[in-house]
Structure formats: C-alpha cells, structure tokens
Write a structure and sequence with these properties.
The structure is a homodimer. The first copy, chain A, is α+β, with helices and mostly antiparallel strands. In chain A, 28% of the residues lie in helices and 29% in strands. In chain A, strand 2 and strand 3 form a beta hairpin. The N and C termini of chain A lie far apart (44 Å). Strand 6 of chain A pairs antiparallel with strand 6 of chain B, so a sheet runs across the interface. Chain A binds a DNA duplex through helix 4.
Amino acid sequence: MNINTSEERLKARNIQPTAMRLRVLTYLVESQAAISLSDLEKKFSQADRTTLFRTLKTYLEHGLVHQINDASGTTKYALCAENCTCTYPDDIHLHFYCSSCEQTYCFPHLGIPEFDLPENFKPARGNFVITGQCSSCPA
Amino acid sequence: MNINTSEERLKARNIQPTAMRLRVLTYLVESQAAISLSDLEKKFSQADRTTLFRTLKTYLEHGLVHQINDASGTTKYALCAENCTCTYPDDIHLHFYCSSCEQTYCFPHLGIPEFDLPENFKPARGNFVITGQCSSCPA
DNA sequence: TGATATTTGCACTATTGTTGCATGGATCTG
DNA sequence: CAGATCCATGCAACAATAGTGCAAATATCA
C-alpha cells in the first residue's frame, strides 16, 4: 500500500482528516526540518494555539509524528516513516540540531545501535540528537 | 591530580566556592540521577529560584555539569567526569529516562559511536537518551 | 432528522526559563 | 585598615511553553 494523499495518510493512522489536520500535515510534509508548536503558531496564526497543540498531541499518540527533544529545550515534532512505530532500536534515527539557525534535521538513514543496557532496564523509545553547525550556516 | 573535596572540584573549574554552590554540588554528587531545576528548588526551598538557576548555569558554562534533554521536556543536569569537555563524540555518553519514576540516569560506560554525518555538518555536542522502564520500577 | 461523538475555540492556570536591579558580602589595593 | 571594586544573592518582574475545563460548532451515525 502506498499512501499518496494526506487524507489517506491520516486515515491509515486512524485520525479523522479535518481541514486543520490536513493543513498541519501538509506543512509537516513540506518542512525539511522538525517543527515546534510555536512554528505551527506562526504558520497558522488564524488558528487557535490549543487546536494546534492538540493536533500535535493526536499525531503523536497515533504514531504519525515522533517527538524530538533537542538542546533548544522546546519539544519538536517530525513525520514518521509510513510503518514506523517509534520504538527503540529499530524505528529510531539520529537527529541534528544546528545551534546557529536552530533547525532540527532528521537523518532517517542513520540508525541507532543497540546499547548494552544494565540488567532490567527496558528500553522503549529513544531520543538521539547531535548538536553543532549545519551545512547552511557559515563557520 | 585527584579532586577530593567539593571545594577543590569547584576551584578546578574556576568557580568560586560559595556556600550555596558547595551545597548544590554536594547534592549533585549524592544524587544518582540527573536533576532538574525544580528538583533543586524542592531540595533547597530556603534558597531563591534564581540563585539555583544561575548556579546550574555557571556549572554548565564551566563544564562541571552536562545538560540532558529527555522526554520529560524539562532540562536536567548531571555531573561531568573530571576532565570532561562535553564534546561529541569523545565525552558524550548514553542516558536513560524512566517514564515511570521520571528519573534520568547517566551511563558513563556506554559511549556514543561516531556517526557518518552529511557533508558540512559539524558536530559539537550530543544528547542521547533512551526512554523506557528502569530496574527499580515494576513492569 | 435527531442523538451522539468529536473537534475546535476561548479563557484560564501552571511551570519553566530568563532578565534587571538593588543589596550585601568577599576580595583587592593602597 | 579604609575605600573601591567585583561578584553572588535575592526580589520582582516578565516571557514562553505546556496544559486543562468548558461551551459552542461541526461531523457522524442510527
């Protein structure tokens, strides 16, 4: 199955495709970087903050996006791959946070190795971010 | 050189060892887990929030502690090793955030591999956290 | 169509992170 | 030791982020 439209993409995750949700999803698709709630607020200034907040929460709960906690301190969100379950180690990848332009990139091709955790530590999810300077920012 | 007392530990990082800073450092040494600003507030309720905030900031700037952004969303801090410079990849290690008890553990023995970043992405620091359930929390 | 469930918007509240300024104590210099 | 200077602390704000309760609007279902 190949998901072409945003509407199908939401339905596949059991999320009702409302107008607002479709627009937020389109924005996520278009964005190269992970976005924060305040990014959404700026983009959709006509919409209510709460709606955007809950849209992201819904996406998160249904596994449409994953959450990234970078050095900026504010939570960011990025689209998951089609069949992603956001579980460590298989579905987790590396992120890069540029401290100059404050963009957060997804590197889906850079997976995470399996760490040898101490006994009885049960992993479920992962948050892996390298901070530095991205290729668009001058040294 | 072996740093025995908290006072020597602060001086080695060029931090004036005031009474408050010594007490915060002692608390950090005693804590097994990484702590947040609000943890400090609870522990030192007589002190001003700002002082505690700036104490952590000073520690961070002088490389005495490193910053961890886990899935809790709030920034946490943990003591660095003696000669740590907090730079990726050498001085970065894995952390574990327990979503049940909300404790954040340092695993200094679990280092971070060097990732093959895209061209002109210059790494400086790293934030690596696995979320799950710790050995103290029942399944 | 009417009943029901879900989504959205508004009004708050809480928490975290942060700054400016005044005070007080430590340190330095003559 | 006196005076000047520097730094740490405390107080009072403020800003941004995160989250909740409720009522109105909208969609869905029988």
